[in-house]
C-alpha cells in the first residue's frame, strides 16, 4: 500500500493496521523525518517512510494493491495510476473549490476506471425549500431553522 502525502504519519499508522506493508510518501523532508520518528516510537514496524515528489509516487515499491492520496487534487497524476497492480485501487478526493468528490480508481488491463464514493446530496433538505437559509430563526421551528451546509 502507498500512502501519498503521509505528513506526520498518522494516516500511515492507521493504514498499517489494514495492510501488511505500507510505504509512506512525504514530499517535505522534515515531515517525513517526524513521521519516521513517530511511527518508530509508536511501535509501528510495517511502515517505510520515504521522501520524494508526491505526484511521482514511489516507483521503487510498485506495483501497489492500494494507493491512498491524502488531501485533494484536481487530477490524479498518471504516474500514480501507472503504479497500480492490475485490479489495484487508488482512492483520492478529486475536485477544486470548497468540495471535492471521493473517488476510487481501479486498474484493469493497463487502464484505470473511476467511480464516485460520495457525492453531495442534491435534495438534502426537502422540508426546507423556500425557507430562509439560516441556522437560527425565531419565526420558524427548530426543524425548519436547521439548514445543512450543502444546501446553503
Q: How would you explain this protein's 3D organization?
A:
The protein contains four helices and seven strands. With 152 residues, the protein is α/β, with parallel strands linked by helices. The chain folds into two domains: 2-116, Vaccinia Virus protein VP39 (Rossmann fold, 3-Layer(aba) Sandwich), CATH 3.40.50.150; 120-152, no CATH class. A seven-stranded mixed β-sheet has the order 3-2-1-4-5-6-7, covered by helices on one side. The chain is globular, with a radius of gyration of 20 Å.
Primary descriptors:
single chain, 32% strand, alpha/beta, disordered C terminus, 152 residues, 4 helices, seven-stranded mixed beta sheet, 7 strands, Rossmann fold
Q: In the CATH classification, which architecture of the largest domain applies?
A: 3-Layer(aba) Sandwich
Derived structural class: alpha/beta
Say which CATH homologous superfamily of the largest domain is assigned: Vaccinia Virus protein VP39
State the major sheet: 7 strands, mixed
Shape, principal axes of CA atoms: globular
Helicity range of the residues?
10-25%
The number of distinct structural domains comes to 2
Rg over CA atoms: 20 Å
**Strand percent estimate:** 25-35%
| Low-pLDDT residue spans | 121-152
Query: Which CATH class of the largest domain applies here?
Result: Alpha Beta
- Arithmetic mean of pLDDT: 81
How many helices? The count is 4
CATH level-3 fold name of the largest domain: Rossmann fold
Order of SSEs, N→C? EHEHEEHEEEH
Distance between the termini: 38 Å
| Count of extended strands | 7
Strand order of the largest sheet: 3-2-1-4-5-6-7
Amino acid at each position: 500500500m502507498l500512502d501519498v502525502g503521509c505528513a506526520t504519519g498518522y494516516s500511515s499508522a492507521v493504514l498499517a493496521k489494514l495492510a501488511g506493508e505500507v510505504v509512506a510518501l512525504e514530499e517535505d523532508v522534515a515531515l517525513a523525518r517526524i513521521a519516521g520518528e513517530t511511527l518508530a516510537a509508536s511501535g509501528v514496524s510495517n511502515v517505510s517512510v520515504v521522501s520524494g515528489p508526491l505526484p511521482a509516487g514511489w516507483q521503487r515499491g510498485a506495483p501497489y494493491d492500494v494507493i491512498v492520496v491524502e488531501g485533494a487534487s484536481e487530477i490524479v497524476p498518471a504516474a500514480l495510476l501507472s503504479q497500480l497492480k492490475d485490479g489495484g485501487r487508488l482512492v483520492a478526493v478529486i475536485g477544486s473549490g470548497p468540495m471535492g468528490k471521493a473517488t476510487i480508481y481501479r486498474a484493469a488491463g493497463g487502464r484505470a476506471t473511476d467511480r464516485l464514493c460520495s457525492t453531495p446530496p442534491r435534495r438534502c433538505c426537502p422540508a426546507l425549500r423556500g425557507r430562509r437559509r439560516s441556522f437560527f430563526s425565531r419565526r420558524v421551528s427548530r426543524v425548519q431553522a436547521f439548514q445543512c451546509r450543502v444546501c446553503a
